[in-house]
């Protein structure tokens, strides 16, 4: 039942975007979403989505009344049960192959509290970086690659 509700919401969102695009003659700005890289004990936190779209980094769309930092904190709490602290913005992406035009902000975050719990969005998994590189949805791969580069840069500093 939950999977059906999520699919209906996604279809409704796509219809809404197409309607806005028609009404604004294509001038509607892209949606903004935020994803989190959360690594603990050498493992990355990911979500195996219940809608069948695959394995993603946790995160979601910003609400119109919140900042990107507020959005990533809210989304991670909703999807994982964890309270997080955004350490820094890693990168911003504008994927071209998505059905919905969006800008994705990727944050490096740390866990500050809370308790691990799966949500209607999907089941939580902890994967090492090699497993994540093999299984993450293509939308998340640039974020993972930039995170790997960030780690190399941090270890190369004197």
Would you mind describing this structure in some detail?
The protein is of the alpha+beta class. The chain is built from 4 helices and 7 strands. It has helices at residues 2-23, 68-80, 129-135, 141-156, and strands at residues 31-40, 43-49, 55-56, 59-61, 82-93, 102-114, 122-127. Strands 1, 2, 3, 4, 5, 6 and 7 form a 7-stranded mixed β-sheet that branches. A hairpin with an 8-residue loop joins strand 5 and strand 6. The termini are far apart.
Judging from the principal axes of the Cα atoms, what is the shape? Answer: globular
| Low-confidence regions | none
Distance between the termini: 54 Å
Spatial extent as radius of gyration:
16 Å
Structural class: alpha+beta
Secondary-structure element series: HEEEEHEEEHH
Count all strands and give the number: 7
Mean pLDDT: 86
Which percent bin holds the helix content? 25-40%
Helical stretch tally: 4
Strand content: 25-35%
Main sheet characteristics: 7 strands, mixed
Brief write-up:
By secondary structure, the chain is of the alpha+beta class. 37% of the residues lie in helices and 34% in strands. The protein contains 4 helices and 7 strands; from the N terminus they run αββββαβββαα.
